[in-house]
Amino acid sequence: MVEKACKNENVDLENELMKLMNNIICRMVMSTRCSEEEDEAQRCKELVEGSMELAGKMALAYFLGPLKKVSCWVFRKQLKEIPRQIDELLEKILKEHEERAKRDGGEGEGKDLMDILLKVYQDKDAEFQISRNHMKAFFVDLFIAGTHTSADSTHWVMALLINHPNVFNKLRGEIESVVGKNRLVEESDIPNLHYLQAIVKETLRLYPLGPFIPRVSCEDCKIGGFDIPKETLVLINLYSIMRDPELWDNPDEFKPERFLVSHKETNRQNHLLGYVPFGGGRRMCPGSHLALTIIHITVASMVQCFDWKVPGEDGDGDGGKVNMEAKSGVIMSMAHPIVCSCGSL
Ligand code: HEM
Question: CATH code at 100?
């Protein structure tokens, strides 16, 4: 990004954010990065994208009921091929980790998640015995659930900031007053960046990445006056809950200030007002803290270091607005990814 800013070239934000989030998860899981030379992480990214696309198509067919069985037949080749390729890649990386651990006698530095799980896997006295398949499934979960979600949410935050220069400037002012002008913003600064946190919260309220969450009724029940028989698939519409005018003042308006209240009050409000971008209950997103940490530090760095502009109608790089339309599908991504200039300060 710095290179592109220096050359005054346009940045494809969706692509850059996806690379960044993939790098972060790859580093956590297996100490590798997603760059041109290191194809393992790049391969992970491609396989995750393939799985997401397939999962989206299958989910759509599933929700349409009778098409469920037909879709398994239509996508049978991909349903076999993608998991086989993921398994092959993960097996290779697991073997490399095992060999490295043997060489280091288990004392190597910089342990990643794979090293930690391998230790539990090899420990015959562990309280819970995990298998190789457990480990692989866990890594796939982390990649599928953790990369697109964080990248797309950051994308929405930047879109709203570009379209609301007053909010952008106020955020930059906050970063300057907390961090100063002589160093880069760090993770430890985040608790003091209240306006930043409010902006991210407000973005996730308006653009929840998973707008619907599925549940299956375990017994006959009534919801909102409707009879729901046992074992019915129910979709909970998080998007509508978070734009419900009964719960939120001017629900369609981007107003981060609504979250600038004391911590205690925010918790009370979130509870009462149905703030549910990460779902709720037992199956609530277990990655919410990680996601927020990543989104906060990414947005703060992008606002601290760069000026963001999308081309205007005359294509002159000034005063343009980002189109906020969402793509149709089970994930709420931007329909028109941002391509913009990012002059560095
Ligand atoms: C802004 C980013 C994210 C958003 C908006 C988000 C949202 C969600 C939502 C709405 C659910 C369904 C919850 C429910 O059914 O009640 C979910 C589930 C899940 N998320 Fe996230 N997520 C994000 C980031 C992450 C990250 C970074 C990870 C892990 C690295 C992660 C891992 C998971 C997993 C494993 C589940 C399934 C939980 C289960 O079924 O028990 N998510 N997420």
Answer: 1.10.630.10
